[in-house]
Amino acid sequence: MKVLVGGGTGFIGRALTHLLHSRGHEVTVVSRQPGASRITWNELTHFGLPPCEAVVNLAGENILNPFRRWNEAYRKDLLSSRLDTTHKLATAIAKAVQPPQAWVLVTGIAYYQPSLTAEYDEDSPGGNFDFFSNLVSKWEAAAKLPGDATRQVVVRSGAVLGRGGGAISHMLLPFRLGLGGPIGSGRQFFPWIHIEDMSRILVHAIENSHVNGILNGVSPASSTTNAEFAKALGAALGRPAFLPLPSPAVQAIFGRERAVMLLEGQKVIPRRTLASGYQYVFPELGAALKQAVS
Ligand SMILES: NC(=O)c1ccc[n+]([C@@H]2O[C@H](COP(=O)([O-])OP(=O)(O)OC[C@H]3O[C@@H](n4cnc5c(N)ncnc54)[C@H](OP(=O)(O)O)[C@@H]3O)[C@@H](O)[C@H]2O)c1
């Protein structure tokens, strides 16, 4: 199968490309930079969709870059890098003479309102209470296609754990130095998924014609709290992890609005993902972290 992957140069995209190649698929990446086996976003707009059977979008400016100040310009970049790329791919799919079989978008579990008590599955309401939930709503709306010639899947992802990027890349140094610990109260839920499972769920969505609609991309161990996560990361590294990072420090680094992503959380269940027949490789946090930091 030929698969077109927007943002395929990134953390998830590299793992997905590797897995697709290992299964005999051909991958073309859509990137801001030209290169081998790539097209640029401008080429996509001008020449339309290259021949392919599946399209995935993973493009997006990094949300938790601690070196970027939380301001209007950053918020605009977060929105446009997701909405414009998704809209460009959806438009190209809609115009394609030979439409692909599958169109898969990765968004986030920020769609669901943080809570210490609620439990969310794919049918739960959300998407309308803060900057990030609104971002997910607009992002998923930008992916909508007019007809049903192409099967559509949206994977709402939790924090992706793996080597060389994602959620734990900024945490590793303090934890390795024995300076890690829970963030804020530590009671907030911390939905996570191993990168191997994220890539495999995307391939499952591409290859199986019965998979459609929203899938939560989180591990089935959905009740992990931030404090439990910190303890497990410390254990995987063989380091103590008792030093809490106080909420005001997180707010000072990330800005109040963005700090919510770290200080609050939601319990998310992958009900439809499991019902679609997906079997997790890393359902347990200890094994997932051990592999991710090895
Ligand atoms: N990693 C996670 O824990 C996680 C969790 C939930 C949701 N997600 C979502 O999943 C998607 C993929 O995540 P990831 O961790 O693989 O992302 P990533 O590595 O940070 O970035 C993916 C790619 O997006 C492109 N990109 C970056 N800034 C851009 C901009 N301003 N305009 C257009 N393209 C831009 C880059 O490709 P080029 O440089 O080649 O253009 C980059 O390689 C993202 O949309 C992310 O929000 C990720």
In short:
The chain has eleven helices and eleven strands. It is α/β, with parallel strands linked by helices and 294 residues long. Helix 3 (72-95) links the parallel strand 4 (54-57) and strand 5.
Describe this structure in words.
The chain has helices at residues 11-22, 41-47, 72-95, 131-142, 172-176, 195-207, 226-237, 247-254, 256-263, 271-275, 285-293, and strands at residues 2-6, 26-31, 38-40, 54-57, 102-108, 119-120, 151-157, 159-161, 192-194, 213-217, 267-268. It is α/β, with parallel strands linked by helices. Strand 8, helix 5 (172-176) and strand 9 (192-194) form a beta-alpha-beta unit. A seven-stranded parallel β-sheet has the order 3-2-1-4-5-7-10, with helices on both faces. The protein has a two-stranded parallel ribbon with strand order 6-11. Strands 8-9 form a two-stranded parallel ribbon. The mean pLDDT is 97. The longest helix is centred in the N-terminal third of the chain and has 24 residues, at 72-95. It has a single domain, classed as Rossmann fold.
Helix and strand string, N-terminal first? EHEEHEHEEHEEHEHEHHHEHH
Rounded to an integer, what's the Rg over CA atoms? 19 Å
At the first level of CATH, what is the class?
Alpha Beta
Largest sheet: spatial strand order: 3-2-1-4-5-7-10
CATH superfamily: NAD(P)-binding Rossmann-like Domain
Q: Which molecules other than protein and nucleic acid are bound?
A: NADP nicotinamide-adenine-dinucleotide phosphate
Number of domains: 1
As a percent range, the share of helical residues equals 25-40%
